Amino acid sequence: DAKTTQPNSMESNEEEPVHLPCNHSTISGTDYIHWYRQLPSQGPEYVIHGLTSNVNNRMASLAIAEDRKSSTLILHRATLRDAAVYYCIDTSYGKLTFGQGTILTVHP
Amino acid sequence: EAGVAQSPRYKIIEKRQSVAFWCNPISGHATLYWYQQILGQGPKLLIQFQNNGVVDDSQLPKDRFSAERLKGVDSTLKIQPAKLEDSAVYLCASSFQLAGALRSSYNEQFFGPGTRLTVL
Protein backbone atom coordinates (compact mmCIF):
# COMPACT_ATOMS: atom_id res chain seq x y z
CA ASP A 1 0.00 0.00 0.00
CA ALA A 2 3.04 2.27 0.37
CA LYS A 3 3.13 4.82 -2.39
CA THR A 4 6.85 5.49 -2.19
CA THR A 5 9.86 3.66 -3.62
CA GLN A 6 13.24 3.60 -1.89
CA PRO A 7 16.42 1.57 -2.36
CA ASN A 8 16.58 -1.38 0.02
CA SER A 9 19.95 -0.41 1.40
CA MET A 10 22.73 2.15 1.20
CA GLU A 11 26.17 2.48 2.72
CA SER A 12 28.21 5.46 3.77
CA ASN A 13 31.41 6.29 5.55
CA GLU A 14 31.44 8.25 8.76
CA GLU A 15 31.56 12.05 8.36
CA GLU A 16 30.61 11.88 4.70
CA PRO A 17 27.32 13.20 3.30
CA VAL A 18 24.54 10.76 2.56
CA HIS A 19 21.80 11.26 -0.02
CA LEU A 20 18.79 8.98 0.46
CA PRO A 21 16.44 9.04 -2.55
CA CYS A 22 12.72 8.44 -2.65
CA ASN A 23 10.22 8.28 -5.51
CA HIS A 24 6.63 9.26 -4.81
CA SER A 25 5.21 9.68 -8.28
CA THR A 26 1.55 9.38 -7.22
CA ILE A 27 1.63 12.01 -4.51
CA SER A 28 -1.15 14.57 -4.64
CA GLY A 29 -0.54 18.28 -4.64
CA THR A 30 -1.52 18.75 -1.01
CA ASP A 31 0.14 15.75 0.66
CA TYR A 32 3.30 16.27 2.63
CA ILE A 33 6.36 14.06 2.37
CA HIS A 34 7.52 12.90 5.79
CA TRP A 35 10.74 11.13 6.67
CA TYR A 36 11.11 9.00 9.76
CA ARG A 37 13.98 6.79 10.84
CA GLN A 38 14.12 3.77 13.09
CA LEU A 39 17.22 3.00 15.07
CA PRO A 40 17.82 -0.63 16.08
CA SER A 41 15.38 -1.87 18.71
CA GLN A 42 13.59 1.48 18.92
CA GLY A 43 10.37 2.98 17.61
CA PRO A 44 10.52 5.27 14.57
CA GLU A 45 11.41 8.91 15.11
CA TYR A 46 10.53 11.95 13.04
CA VAL A 47 13.29 13.38 10.88
CA ILE A 48 11.82 16.03 8.60
CA HIS A 49 8.85 16.85 6.39
CA GLY A 50 8.07 19.12 3.47
CA LEU A 51 5.56 20.04 0.79
CA THR A 52 7.24 21.90 -2.06
CA SER A 53 10.24 23.81 -0.82
CA ASN A 54 13.54 22.43 0.37
CA VAL A 55 13.64 22.14 4.15
CA ASN A 56 16.41 22.13 6.70
CA ASN A 57 16.51 21.25 10.37
CA ARG A 58 19.13 20.20 12.87
CA MET A 59 18.96 16.57 11.78
CA ALA A 60 18.85 16.74 8.01
CA SER A 61 17.85 18.53 4.83
CA LEU A 62 15.06 17.58 2.47
CA ALA A 63 15.31 18.39 -1.22
CA ILE A 64 12.01 18.04 -3.08
CA ALA A 65 11.94 17.87 -6.87
CA GLU A 66 10.07 20.62 -8.66
CA ASP A 67 7.47 18.13 -9.97
CA ARG A 68 7.19 16.63 -6.44
CA LYS A 69 7.59 13.10 -7.80
CA SER A 70 10.78 12.52 -5.86
CA SER A 71 12.74 13.80 -2.91
CA THR A 72 16.13 13.29 -1.31
CA LEU A 73 16.95 13.21 2.38
CA ILE A 74 20.42 14.60 2.99
CA LEU A 75 22.49 13.83 6.05
CA HIS A 76 25.34 16.30 5.80
CA ARG A 77 27.86 14.37 7.90
CA ALA A 78 26.91 10.81 8.71
CA THR A 79 27.79 9.44 12.13
CA LEU A 80 27.64 5.89 13.42
CA ARG A 81 24.48 6.88 15.31
CA ASP A 82 22.75 7.60 11.99
CA ALA A 83 22.76 3.90 11.11
CA ALA A 84 19.04 3.13 10.87
CA VAL A 85 16.14 2.33 8.56
CA TYR A 86 14.95 5.52 6.86
CA TYR A 87 11.34 5.72 5.77
CA CYS A 88 10.02 8.11 3.16
CA ILE A 89 6.27 8.46 3.67
CA ASP A 90 3.56 9.83 1.40
CA THR A 91 0.91 11.07 3.81
CA SER A 92 -2.16 10.35 1.74
CA TYR A 93 -5.42 10.15 3.68
CA GLY A 94 -3.81 11.96 6.57
CA LYS A 95 -1.88 9.03 7.94
CA LEU A 96 1.60 7.55 7.82
CA THR A 97 1.87 4.50 5.55
CA PHE A 98 5.31 2.99 5.99
CA GLY A 99 7.08 1.03 3.27
CA GLN A 100 10.14 -1.11 3.85
CA GLY A 101 12.48 1.87 3.95
CA THR A 102 16.20 2.10 3.26
CA ILE A 103 18.67 0.42 5.59
CA LEU A 104 21.57 2.83 6.03
CA THR A 105 24.89 1.34 7.11
CA VAL A 106 27.59 3.77 8.26
CA HIS A 107 31.20 2.55 8.24
CA PRO A 108 33.76 4.00 10.66
CA GLU B 1 9.38 15.75 28.52
CA ALA B 2 8.50 12.11 29.14
CA GLY B 3 8.05 10.02 26.03
CA VAL B 4 5.45 7.43 25.10
CA ALA B 5 5.50 4.58 27.58
CA GLN B 6 4.64 0.98 26.71
CA SER B 7 4.50 -2.20 28.70
CA PRO B 8 5.46 -4.93 28.75
CA ARG B 9 8.56 -4.67 26.58
CA TYR B 10 8.56 -8.38 25.78
CA LYS B 11 5.91 -11.07 25.89
CA ILE B 12 5.99 -14.74 24.95
CA ILE B 13 2.74 -16.68 24.74
CA GLU B 14 1.43 -19.81 23.14
CA LYS B 15 -1.03 -19.70 20.26
CA ARG B 16 -4.67 -19.36 21.26
CA GLN B 17 -3.72 -17.52 24.45
CA SER B 18 -4.69 -13.91 25.13
CA VAL B 19 -2.39 -10.94 25.58
CA ALA B 20 -2.76 -7.25 26.33
CA PHE B 21 -0.46 -4.31 25.75
CA TRP B 22 -0.60 -0.96 27.49
CA CYS B 23 0.37 2.48 26.22
CA ASN B 24 0.61 5.84 27.97
CA PRO B 25 1.00 8.68 25.45
CA ILE B 26 2.72 11.99 25.93
CA SER B 27 0.67 14.25 28.15
CA GLY B 28 -1.71 16.45 26.18
CA HIS B 29 -1.56 14.43 22.98
CA ALA B 30 -5.02 14.01 21.52
CA THR B 31 -4.23 11.35 18.96
CA LEU B 32 -3.00 7.84 19.74
CA TYR B 33 -1.97 5.15 17.28
CA TRP B 34 -1.24 1.43 17.47
CA TYR B 35 1.03 -0.07 14.83
CA GLN B 36 2.10 -3.65 14.12
CA GLN B 37 5.63 -4.18 12.81
CA ILE B 38 6.50 -7.62 11.48
CA LEU B 39 10.19 -8.40 11.22
CA GLY B 40 11.72 -6.85 8.11
CA GLN B 41 8.72 -4.66 7.35
CA GLY B 42 7.69 -1.11 8.13
CA PRO B 43 5.07 -0.43 10.80
CA LYS B 44 1.44 -0.95 9.78
CA LEU B 45 -1.29 1.15 11.35
CA LEU B 46 -3.85 -0.93 13.23
CA ILE B 47 -5.99 1.70 14.88
CA GLN B 48 -6.05 5.44 15.44
CA PHE B 49 -7.84 7.25 18.27
CA GLN B 50 -8.64 10.91 18.63
CA ASN B 51 -9.25 11.48 22.33
CA ASN B 52 -11.38 8.43 23.21
CA GLY B 53 -12.99 7.97 19.79
CA VAL B 54 -11.83 5.69 16.98
CA VAL B 55 -10.78 7.55 13.82
CA ASP B 56 -9.52 4.62 11.74
CA ASP B 57 -9.56 0.91 12.50
CA SER B 58 -9.75 -0.31 8.91
CA GLN B 59 -6.68 -2.53 9.25
CA LEU B 60 -7.49 -3.96 12.68
CA PRO B 61 -8.38 -7.69 12.54
CA LYS B 62 -11.51 -7.22 14.58
CA ASP B 63 -12.21 -10.93 15.04
CA ARG B 64 -9.23 -11.17 17.38
CA PHE B 65 -7.88 -7.68 18.05
CA SER B 66 -9.52 -5.01 20.17
CA ALA B 67 -8.37 -1.67 21.52
CA GLU B 68 -9.75 0.94 23.82
CA ARG B 69 -8.88 4.38 25.10
CA LEU B 70 -11.60 4.91 27.65
CA LYS B 71 -10.60 8.21 29.24
CA GLY B 72 -8.82 9.66 26.25
CA VAL B 73 -5.41 9.12 27.80
CA ASP B 74 -3.82 5.68 28.02
CA SER B 75 -4.81 2.78 25.82
CA THR B 76 -4.88 -1.01 25.78
CA LEU B 77 -4.54 -3.30 22.76
CA LYS B 78 -5.69 -6.89 23.19
CA ILE B 79 -5.30 -10.02 21.09
CA GLN B 80 -7.61 -12.93 21.80
CA PRO B 81 -6.84 -15.62 20.69
CA ALA B 82 -3.31 -15.11 19.39
CA LYS B 83 -2.04 -16.76 16.22
CA LEU B 84 1.51 -17.51 15.16
CA GLU B 85 1.37 -14.71 12.57
CA ASP B 86 0.72 -12.16 15.33
CA SER B 87 4.38 -12.37 16.31
CA ALA B 88 5.59 -8.81 15.82
CA VAL B 89 6.53 -5.61 17.58
CA TYR B 90 3.51 -3.56 18.62
CA LEU B 91 4.23 0.14 18.60
CA CYS B 92 2.22 2.89 20.19
CA ALA B 93 2.54 6.49 19.02
CA SER B 94 0.90 9.77 19.91
CA SER B 95 0.63 13.19 18.36
CA PHE B 96 -0.56 16.56 19.59
CA GLN B 97 -2.64 17.73 16.65
CA LEU B 98 -5.86 16.29 15.43
CA ALA B 99 -5.93 13.27 13.15
CA GLY B 100 -5.96 14.15 9.48
CA ALA B 101 -3.86 17.25 9.97
CA LEU B 102 -0.97 15.83 7.98
CA ARG B 103 -2.28 17.41 4.80
CA SER B 104 -1.92 20.94 5.94
CA SER B 105 0.38 21.09 8.89
CA TYR B 106 3.13 19.46 10.84
CA ASN B 107 1.88 16.60 12.99
CA GLU B 108 4.86 14.70 14.30
CA GLN B 109 4.16 11.29 15.75
CA PHE B 110 6.14 10.22 18.80
CA PHE B 111 6.67 6.49 19.09
CA GLY B 112 7.18 4.35 22.14
CA PRO B 113 9.82 1.60 22.34
CA GLY B 114 7.33 -1.11 21.41
CA THR B 115 6.32 -4.48 22.80
CA ARG B 116 7.90 -7.50 21.17
CA LEU B 117 5.37 -10.35 21.04
CA THR B 118 6.40 -13.91 20.30
CA VAL B 119 3.64 -16.46 19.73
CA LEU B 120 4.77 -20.09 19.96
Topology:
The complex is a heterodimer of chains A (108) and B (120).
Chain A: E1 9-13, E2 18-23, E3 33-38, E4 45-50, E5 55-56, E6 61-64, E7 70-75, E8 84-90, E9 102-107
Parallel strand pairs in A: 1-9
Antiparallel strand pairs in A: 2-7, 3-4, 3-8, 5-6, 6-7, 8-9
Chain B: E1 5-7, E2 10-13, E3 19-24, E4 31-37, E5 44-50, E6 53-56, E7 65-68, E8 75-79, E9 88-95, E10 110-111, E11 115-119
Parallel strand pairs in B: 2-11
Antiparallel strand pairs in B: 1-3, 3-8, 4-5, 4-9, 5-6, 7-8, 9-10, 9-11
Question: Short summary of the structure?
Answer:
Chain A has 108 residues and is mainly β. Chain A has strands at residues 9-13, 18-23, 33-38, 45-50, 55-56, 61-64, 70-75, 84-90, 102-107.
Structural summary, described in words:
The complex is a heterodimer of chains A (108) and B (120). Chain A is built from no helices and nine strands. Chain A is mainly beta and 108 residues long. In chain A, the strands form two sheets. Chain A has a five-stranded mixed sheet with strand order 1-9-8-3-4, with no helix packed on it. Chain A is globular and about 40 Å long. Chain A starts with 8 loop residues before the first strand and ends with a strand. Chain B has 120 residues and is an all-beta fold. In chain B, strands 2, 4, 5, 6, 9, 10 and 11 form a seven-stranded mixed sheet that branches. A four-stranded antiparallel sheet of chain B has the order 1-3-8-7, with no helix packed on it. Chain B is globular, with a radius of gyration of 14 Å. The N and C termini of chain B lie far apart (37 Å).
